[in-house]
Amino acid sequence: LISMSELSFLHSHSSLESALKECYQVSHAQIKKYLSPKLRSQSVQAQKPVEVPLNLLNLNRINPNYEGPPIDILDEDENFIVLSKPAKIHNHPLSYDESNNCLSFLRSIGKGDVLKINEENYDRGLVFRLDFETSGVLIYCRNETLRKVIRNNFQRSFIQKKYLAIVEGEFPEFTTINGRLSSSGLKGHKVEVTPVNEGRGFVGKIEVNRLEYKNNLSYLEITLFEGHRHQIRALLAYKDFPILGDILYGASRSDRIYLHAKEYSLSADKFQKTWTCDKVQDFEKRMKA
Fold first, then answer.
1. Which helix (H) or strand (E) is 177 found in, with range?
2. Whether 203 contacts 228, CB under 8 Å
3. Whole-model pTM?
4. 202-216: per-residue pLDDT in tens?
5. How confident is the model at residue 279 (pLDDT cuts 50, 70, 90)?
6. d(Cα 90, Cα 88) in Å, to the nearest integer?
């Protein structure tokens, strides 16, 4: 159900599109996304109410009504605010009516200054993305200049990236996995892995250390070297060890995908910081089950 808002314009306009462009500074492409051709072209009479989607009127604004679970703040200073993102929470919304996301959480607790960065995009000060199902360290930048420096030099800026995962079966104690990554499936929603010397796409590499093996489950610590989409998920599945709960890559169904961003170390603009999130009770509970 699309939320609508009733508007009245002071002056008449030849079309609703021209009225919205003049009064709300929205583009044709943005209007086209939310309004049908018939609604866009309808005339507007002065002071006569018309209905317009709330998502269009609040374009690029963040809903203040967070509806998800509590989120812990791991660290906060003048440059960053770092969260412990729960699983099944989005990093940011794609429209105003979405409130199950970390930015709505920040606005709901009065941390709205983060939303003043990169205001024309919904990802705001987000430095990197975690999948919806992935938990762990999530970093937002409060400084626009610094955000651009980090995003433009991502591989150099993040000198350490560690993740935790649970897979079925007895994983080797230590191994390195390499592969060439390319998008596949409907709208590229899945990543396909081929040998490094075959195919097209980015080359991905992870180092995997087995922390524990119990009840036919392996608890892994993964060092990530690049920031390619679905890299850990796809590379583990490539070696026939998909992450527990990751049915997209052939794993058994579970209550969540057992992937967690444990640690990020950043070196940029003459400073170095490390953020760690060891809050993984659900992982420990699953290994004991």
1. strand 174-184
2. no
3. 0.89
4. 899 999 999 999 999
5. confident
6. 7
